[in-house]
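Render this sequence as a predicted structure.
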Amino acid sequence: MKLRKISAAAIALVSGLLLSNSHVGRVHADEKACSTKTLHGSYGFYRSGTTSTGPLTAVGFVFYDGNGNNTATQTISRNGVFTLDQTTVGQYEVDADCTGRGFQNGVQISRTVIVNGGTEVYLLSMVAGNAVFGVAKKIHSSDDDH
């Protein structure tokens, strides 16, 4: 009797997992695919975490051109020392599943996930010694930028 209850519970669990995975696949397949054009316009962002030299926080904005290039201007606090209005230029790639990568001088510096139809980006630094994450939210359409 106990074996029958355990078997029934196991079958129910496996069935539930299979059904939930097939549902996730259907939902994902129905969503619009992403590309570099998904990121187009100005986004306000913050970053926070730790680096090999101590804590880091930053706020700023980044402009994505829709063709794989970006320009960011930010104010950074590294271990309590401020750098104001630092501008950097980079590149980005976006996969159809809305994941992506950020580059600076050809070196990968971040992994990203694009959400809410391209209005938000979640970022994780890929720089050795860093544990820094960030969130960017769209603030302008591409027609209103720069």
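Summary. The chain has one helix and eight strands. Residues 1-30 form one domain.
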